[in-house]
Design brief:
The chain is mainly alpha-helical. The protein has one domain: Transferase(Phosphotransferase) domain 1 (Transferase(Phosphotransferase), domain 1, Orthogonal Bundle). The protein contains 4 helices and 2 strands; from the N terminus they run αββααα.
Length: 117
């Protein structure tokens, strides 16, 4: 299942426009609730609602963190620049079906993550 979710994310990360220019899509909300198994056994990464793409017309306001803190990369938690590596970090966190720092509050998790990098 993890492998198939990673394949789906890779497809999104490699997505190009009609001219072949990379879209640089970043999901930004990879979590267990956004990875589904269909009735036929296919794994799907869903909810690209807060995804970022370079060509996107609207941008997230500076300082606004989007996604689930429990699964996000330290860079994303700090409102820093994110790329496909943030999704891979989140997929690894989501694969455990628990937050990478169990028993800690969202604020503590964010602070600890942001001070490590």
């Amino acid at each position: 299942m993890l492998s198939e979710a990673a394949t789906g994310l890779h497809y999104a990360h490699e997505f190009t426009d009609a001219k072949g220019n990379p879209m640089n899509v970043v999901h930004r909300d990879v979590s267990p609730s956004n990875i589904f198994i269909t009735y036929t056994g296919q794994v799907k990464v869903l909810d690209f609602g807060i995804a970022r793409a370079e060509s996107r017309v609207t941008n997230t306001s500076a300082g606004i963190v989007k996604g689930k803190y429990q699964y996000m990369s330290p860079e994303q938690a700090r409102s820093g620049q994110v790329d496909r590596r943030a999704d891979i970090y989140s997929l690894g966190s989501a694969s455990t079906r628990r937050a990478p720092t169990p028993g800690r509050s969202r604020a503590t998790t964010t602070w600890r993550s942001s001070t490590r990098c």
